[in-house]
Structure formats: structure tokens, C-alpha cells
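Weekly modeling sync, notes
Attendees: AB, CL, MP (scribe)

Item 1: holo prediction request
CL wants a bound-state model with magnesium ion before deciding which constructs to order. AB pointed out that an apo prediction alone won't tell us much about the pocket. Agreed to run with the ligand included and paste results into these notes for async review.

Input as submitted:
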Amino acid sequence: MRTLDELDARGKRVLVRADFNVPLQNGEVEDDTRIRASLPTVEHLLAQNATVVLMSHLGRPKGEDPAFRLRPVAFRLEELLRQPVTYVPFPPGSDQTYEVVRGLGPGVVALLENVRFEPGETKNDPELARRYARLGEAFVLDAFGSAHRAHASVVGVASLLPSYAGRLMEREVRALARLLQGYQRPYWVVLGGAKISDKIGVIQNLLNHVDGIAIGGAMAFTFIRAEGGEVGDSLVEEDKLEVARGILKAARDKGKPVLLPTDVVAAAEIREGVATQVVPAERIPAGLKGLDIGPETQKRFAEALSSAQTVFWNGPMGVFEVPPFDRGTLAVARAIAALEGAYTVVGGGDSVAAIHRLGLAKAFTHVSTGGGASLEFLEKGTLPGIEALGGLP
Ligand code: ADP
Ligand code: MG
């Protein structure tokens, strides 16, 4: 993977694929974390007096839906950079966009319109990739959150221009690569969240590396059910019971502990202030749903993690959006944050939102900005976007 250190950007026009897929509210950027994450790359290029042409996707528009325009991102970017940003409101592959971009001078920052307004974007259409390639003399991929997508603005254009990893991309890949190679042990993984189906490949690959796995969240109920437990009305993926059994068997064959909840906080519905009870995880009464790991489980997980030198965490332990079902997630976050000298990484949209809300992000070695991308990297050891830049460093 070539990096910005190998690019002499002085006076060049540089096309940058960033990840500005931010949440909008009433036409304004609600959370600018991803825009901030792109600043090291943009500022590095500006310091070399390059012309910086930024592009990104936003959401999943069907056609040119005005609700998915990037104008609000341009406004926020102007504030963060403290310099004007030229917003180019045409489809990014169009001749109109090309005409605007051709006229931009050095030191200028431009933001193109949503790449998903182009029907060829997600199909990695070669003609669209050629149209993008006209817009720069070099290409920088900094959209780590999209690096698992073989789309025209991610990998298509990279094959047509000298291409480099941006600072965010570089940082993410280095941080996550340390979870697959050269890690210190004991190495524990904590998994939670809604569905096991999203995370099967990751679990299977990480089982080759880790010393143990702790599983919470709704995902745990598919495992508990697979072992014959009664989980009441908790979420279970009935079609994944066999997969869950296979994972538990593989772990046992390798002699690696898989910790499942022994107690859960259960309620009849997901609502703030609803009556809750702590019940055994494998005997949840009918009519109740397990919505968080219980106090005994919090303690067991924290104890298992206490000697870890490496931890990867993905997925909240409960319905953290609705108190009091945020306590298990808080307990696990605190247990990981308290590890001194350990290498700790959190990845996943909701888990990262949870630790930001708990104010614990600074206590982790690395907080990944890419949910799906970080999981796919840990499953496969690389991503289409990394390969397009020449493979792992
Ligand atoms: P991430 O984005 O960190 O990868 P996921 O998207 O897999 O995490 O899962 C997050 C969602 O899982 C949250 O919306 C949370 O409310 C839900 N969740 C966690 N535990 C439970 C549970 N016991 N029952 C229902 N939903 C749960
Ligand atoms: Mg999520």
C-alpha cells in the first residue's frame, strides 16, 4: 500500500475519495466525526499547495435525490478547514463537473456531488472510473469505511491513476493489522450487537488468533438457544442455530473459552423506565426479552478481560440506546478502558457510538471509523481498497 509519503503532490490536482457518509438532520451535519477524520489528509495536501478534489458517497439514494446532496458537508468542511470549499453540484462523472474541476487553481478545495448519484458507481463501471480519473493527476483513497466496496470511486479509479492511501486509511489499516499479526497475548475478543449473521466470518477467523471470546448482545441468544437454553422472547436467529453450534464446537476443539451470559436483564418490552428483572440467561421466562447482560455476567467478562494484553470489541452488550439496558455495555467499556498497557480496539458503528456517548473513546488505543470495513478486514485480512493500492504494507 503506497502512502502519502510517496506522493509529491506539489502543484498537482489530487482526487481524494473520502468517507463523508455522515448523519444529516434538517439539512445539517449531525455528527461530523467522519469529516474531521479526513482533515489530516486534506491538510497534508494543502500544505503542498495541491488542488484537492474530494468525493464521497452519502447514504443510499435511489437516483439523484436532493436529500442526499453533499452541500451540508461542504459547509461543515469549510468551517473545519477555515477556508472556502467549492461545492460542485453536478453528477461527479459529468462533463460539467470536469469543466469546473479543470478551472480550479492550486490550494483550492472542491467537494463533488454524491458518487451514488452515478448509476455506475456501485457496479464499478469502467467508463465511470475513466470519467473520475480525468479529475486528478493522482488518486488518494482515504475512505476506510468504504474500502470493502469494489465501487468505481474506490477501486475502479485507483487502477487508472497513481494511487495512495490517505492518512486515515493508513492509520486504520495499521491498527487493525495488529489484531491479526504480532499481537500480545492473552488476546480476547468481545462481541455483541444485534445479529450473528453479520459476524460469522469474523468469529471464525478470529478463533485462529484469540485466547477467548466473550459474547453478549442479542447475538448471545442464538448461541444459548443452540445449546438448548430457554430464551423467552429474546431475539434468536433460528436459521443460524447450526452455525452457532459449529462455532462453539470449533472453539472447544481449539481449547478456547467462549463466554456466554449466565444472567440477563429482561423486560417485556424495550422502553425507558419499564420494569426489569435479572434472570438466568438459559431460563428466560416466556413473555420476557433479554435486553442486556446481567451483573454476574458483567463481572465474569471483566475478570476474563483483566489480564488481556490485546482486546478487540465489536457490538454493544445490550440495547444501550435505552437505559437501563446500557449498563452491560458501560461495564464492558470500563473493563477494557481500565486495562493498562494493553492494545485495545473498538470497531462497529453502534459500539463506537456507545463509547463516544460514555466518554471513553480516549481510553482505547484505536477507535475504528469503519464498521463493516473493519469486520471484513478482520475476516479476510485485506480489503478491495487495500488491494487497489498495492496490498498490505
Ligand atoms: P455494531 O454497529 O457495533 O457492529 P450491531 O449493529 O451489530 O453493532 O448491533 C447494535 C444493535 O444491537 C443496537 O441497536 C442494540 O440495541 C442491539 N442489541 C444489542 N443487544 C440487544 C438485545 N439483547 N436485544 C435486542 N437488541 C440488542
Ligand atoms: Mg450497527
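Recorded for review: The mean pLDDT is 96.
Action items: CL to compare against the apo run; MP to circulate these notes.
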